[in-house]
């Protein structure tokens, strides 16, 4: 058994509902699961799209990293994700990323753990820290709290609130 942390995001359809259902699907492959609150974030990279809803789940799995990735892709496809037809970093019904897999470091063409964008993405770091504030980045050797604190505002806030971490232009 290995502890894993997964980042979930959606900005198409009823995103909050999709994430809730995806968590239920993930509970079939993760035991002792913990779920962050729902966060809302401004789109990054490809900015001409709706805001995202994000969350993180962690739990124990018997799946190896490749099996976990395949299972995640199956879940995404169930919610309409078609990687071959989408805009890179663009709108999607469901995105599930393996943020951390224990303390393992994996570098394969289609599987990199820890997630290569983790250190720069508050939409992953803040919900991750909500459920596990003592995590250390396995490659950088730096507490994730320090990474999050070093980043500028990126337009993310708990979905139950209505204020980004910076003023949101109208």
From TrEMBL:
Domain 7,8-dihydro-6-hydroxymethylpterin-pyrophosphokinase: 88-99
The family this protein is said to belong to: Belongs to the HPPK family.
One record GO biological process: folic acid biosynthetic process
Superkingdom of the organism of origin: Bacteria
Gene3D superfamilies recorded: 7,8-Dihydro-6-hydroxymethylpterin-pyrophosphokinase HPPK
Keyword DNA damage part of the UniProt annotation: no
PANTHER family reported in the protein's UniProt record: 2-AMINO-4-HYDROXY-6-HYDROXYMETHYLDIHYDROPTERIDINE PYROPHOSPHOKINASE
Alphabetical UniProt keywords: ATP-binding, Folate biosynthesis, Kinase, Nucleotide-binding, Transferase
Role this protein plays: Catalyzes the transfer of pyrophosphate from adenosine triphosphate (ATP) to 6-hydroxymethyl-7,8-dihydropterin, an enzymatic step in folate biosynthesis pathway.
GO molecular function, one term: kinase activity
NCBIfam families reported in the protein's UniProt record: folK
UniProt protein name: 2-amino-4-hydroxy-6-hydroxymethyldihydropteridine pyrophosphokinase
Pathway the protein contributes to: Cofactor biosynthesis; tetrahydrofolate biosynthesis; 2-amino-4-hydroxy-6-hydroxymethyl-7,8-dihydropteridine diphosphate from 7,8-dihydroneopterin triphosphate: step 4/4
EC numbers on record: 2.7.6.3
InterPro entries: Hppk (IPR000550), Hppk_sf (IPR035907)
PROSITE patterns: HPPK
Organism: uncultured spirochete
């Amino acid at each position: 058994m290995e502890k894993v942390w997964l980042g979930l995001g959606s900005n198409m359809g009823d995103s909050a509902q999709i994430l809730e259902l995806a968590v239920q699907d993930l509970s079939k492959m993760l035991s002792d699961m913990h779920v962050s609150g729902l966060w809302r974030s401004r789109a990054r990279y490809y900015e001409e799209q709706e805001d995202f809803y994000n969350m993180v789940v962690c739990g124990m799995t018997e799946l190896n990293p490749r099996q976990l990735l395949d299972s995640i892709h199956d879940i995404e496809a169930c919610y309409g994700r078609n990687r071959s037809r989408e805009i890179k970093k663009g709108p999607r019904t469901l995105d599930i990323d393996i943020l951390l897999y224990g303390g393992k470091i994996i570098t394969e063409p289609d599987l990199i753990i820890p997630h290569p964008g983790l250190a720069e993405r508050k939409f992953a770091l803040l919900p991750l820290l909500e459920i596990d504030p003592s995590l250390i980045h396995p490659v950088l050797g730096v507490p994730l709290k320090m990474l999050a604190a070093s980043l500028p505002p990126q337009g993310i806030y708990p979905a139950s609130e209505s204020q980004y971490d910076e003023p949101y232009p109208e």
